[in-house]
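Budget justification, computational time. The allocation requested in the original proposal was used primarily to generate structure tokens for proteins on the priority list. As evidence of use, we reproduce two of the resulting records. The first is shown immediately below.
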Amino acid sequence: MLNYLQRLGRSLMLPVAVLPIMALLLGIGYAFDPAGWGTGSQIGGFLITAGGAIINNLAILFAVGVALGMSNDRDGSAALAGIVAYLMVTELLSVESISMLTGVEIEEVPGAFAQIGNVFIGMI
């Protein structure tokens, strides 16, 4: 059990390693353009957009990183399997899918299903 938890901890380090560069991109970008819309500085808008690309797709990064880190041979097929598993779970548990599968209106589906694409689901 301890060996499994150590492998899981090591595999989490792969996606966590990109967080400092994301923070630097966002921090420097907001220093150039505090409004964050690129109107004050095009360089600031560029850096904010680059950092935002990482933070907006953090769940996918964790899905790939954990799958790759937990595989025995660290093969790229494990990373592909991680992406496929993440996409299947998020699509199957989307509001539209739940509405179709249960036969209820979209407005009646619990709001938690709208937030299913998060980092925790990526790690699972």
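The second record produced under the same allocation is shown here.
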Amino acid sequence: MTRIDIFLVLLITVSALAVVTARHEARKLFLDLQQVQKTGRDLEVEWERLLLKQASWAMYHKVEAIATQRLGMNHPDASHIRVLAAETELNSGAVNASGTGSSGPKVGR
């Protein structure tokens, strides 16, 4: 064998090893990509489940049940409910820093 033949065999061997290494690395990266995509899909499923759970907890009857059972809250009697008329002074007049009109607060009792 001549020097050129030995050089070419060596060059082909190095090239083959480089191809094998590159393919192995590509397969390894592809497996990593699949794992990350699976994790992403799992997180999306978990996110959807949490959104549904949040929506169910925000429903009126659920909030009312928790308020009455856990917190001991209840609806007030009609005798305890007072409806106050809106003050026209506040809507048309100046409002100071405390949120009252220029003539002071008016409380209906």
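A brief technical remark on that second record: DSSP finds three helices and no strands in the chain.
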